[in-house]
Amino acid sequence: MATTSRKTFLLNRRNFLQGSAALGASVIGLEALAACGSTAASTPGVVTATVNTLPPAANAGAVYTFNQVIKQFEQAYPGEKIVGKNDPYDPSTFFARLAAGQAEDATQSYFTEPGLLISKHAVADITSLAKSWQYWNSFNPGVASIATDPASGKIYGMPQNGYALGIYYNRKMFSAAGLDPDKPPTTWDDFRAYAKKLTTSSVAGFAETSSGNQGGWHFTNWMYTAGGDMQSADGKTATFNSAKGVSVLQLLKEMRFTDNSMTKQQLFTQADTLQLLATNKVAMVVMAPDQLNTLKSQYQANMDDFGIGPMPQNGGNAVLTGGNIFVFNPKSSKDVIKAAFDYVVYSNFNLQLVESNYATQSAAGQVVGAPTNVLFTGPFQQQLNALNTKYANVPLSHYTTFVNSTATLRAEPRNQTQKMYAALDPVMQAVLTNPNADPQALLNQAAQQFQQVLNQSAS
Amino acid sequence: MELFSSSASAPPTSDVTSRFQNTRNSQEDMSFSQRLKRGMRHNLSGYLFLLPALLIFALFVWYPIIQGFIMSFQSIDMINPPAWVGWENYRQVLTDPLFAVAWRNTLAFTLYALLFGYMIPVILALVINEMRHGKAFFRLVFYLPVMLSPIVTVFLWRWIYNPDSGLLNALLSLVHIPGGLWLENPGTALPSLMVVATWSSAGSTMLIYLAGLQGVPASLYEAAEIDGASLWRRLWSITLPTIRPIMLLMLILQIIGTMQVFIEPFTITNGGPVNSTTSVLLLIYNYAFQNADFGGASALGVMLFLVLAVFALIYMRMTNSLIQGD
User: Is this prediction's ipTM beyond 0.85?
Assistant: First the structure.
């Protein structure tokens, strides 16, 4: 009797354990299946496209403006719906997400990306959509070329805003050093002299990036101001180890080790140099105008203290452009891409909308008036500029020298750009950390290394 | 006569053994499939409990490993269908000038970690073990860095190493030693990172050694004291031999771990200055996520795997011999 009741108890317990284990395994299995695919139900006749530019929830004013724009778009374009996601572009995860089907239909990316994206077929061909837009031909040729594949002439993206790199400087430090805050340096010699004058025991005159491929990026910028070329016109030869390239490195090296007007700490990215500027540790940095918003909203900086000037020139009268460009998911259907394209054009270039946006942004405390729009030439650009000026909530007079600059806008060299920047990062780092660095030898070595990359990509 | 002979030829049986022979629990009576079924039935709940873990391992560990091997022979960018390229990825990786640099840096880092980072936890454990008061306090103090999140560690050490205004140079200037460029000098960047790595992981290894030291019988120490052995003699003849097996295990684990160093080079110096802190794993990351060259990344990953497999085999040999008793 005792044995059988114990056996029954054992069987019950074992059955219970078996049952719960089986249940657990099946629940996990079901969850895994459910997570695999979740498709939103779609109403027939209505196309829904996703966009990655929803501002972060912490910025309530911007989120409100964003959603208002979507409402107005959906009224103007019945049958097209837009869903926004807060998902800033990240070059290191984009390819994996695209493969996993998690990339949005329209992704805001940077000017530095389309070359690689086009070569990897990671972006949709929107040639017919782009050419049918009335203002496509108003684009500044340098900007339009970024969205185009030079080999086929096909268009793969929609530039959203473009800017030239410039110098952000601290006007208060200028005044304290006896320099006119309305006259930022325009030549290399002036720039070097100013940096020396601005350096005190707690403030460095200048800080430069040298990490995360941004050393090579800023080297290219300086190279253009010297009138040099990074690659041959056909993109087959590396040409940055010229005398002009050496002059760039020589300038930086002398500022660092002879004048001691740069920070000792190096290996910066743009985020680091902006922080140094915002916290009054550095007087001048090379920066893009679209960072004004970060300066104001993240660092709560007093915008009256800062000015933007053009890149100091040394014979090149040119500057590197940067900007944002929308690219479209090659896996999305044509209708969805068209909806996304319509939204991008409407939200960025519809003049009434731009005006009402500026008004709302200004009221919500966002920066309006940053000199970021150098996309177009001709009457369309003038109309955009007028709106910018009308609603600006930053001291535009602090940026006049930058806006009035007549330097040519040059796009980045097309071929293997990121690898070129990666090859130049160590060169910048060496020159900024080693007083015995030999610029010519470093450039020759980097050019040799990069030339191999170019040769391999051509084969 | 016949009775005796018949009973003599049969094996001696008692009540108990005959009962065993007659039930189905007898091994000789059951066939292989019957034994298998019985084993499965007994262990079914055990297998079911293992099933989720097996599924997760298969999906997240074994499948990616096999995929990695396959991808190392393909040209793959995650968007277009992969193309078979044979040994091309390996050839490209081997001819990359950064290949030699990354291996040299990684081996240098491992060597620095052995010379400096390996003995520190041992010494800390020995010292703390000998303390009479304050053991718990010092255990906590040395374990705190392990609990810090990596991002906090990065910010902290970037500030310490800052050549303009950092803690290290400030302390050195107090004793009139000129400060240096720690992370900015290609010669000192890697050892500086090794200090950070040691600081953030010594605590956990120290606790393992402390646990091992508890296994030393106190009677041995007492006997040695009676015989007049000094502190050093006791350490050398009693303590170290007792924790020698743990030390050997930690040695192999440390080599395997430090050869995969990634966090410090990636977050603090991003491979610089001038590629002096580019490790093999950082190079793999750059191939995959800067160049979208997943084939090349997989090829280098396979090479790293083969090198580490050698050490892992040594480790397995050692743990086997320890389990069986040396």
Answer: no
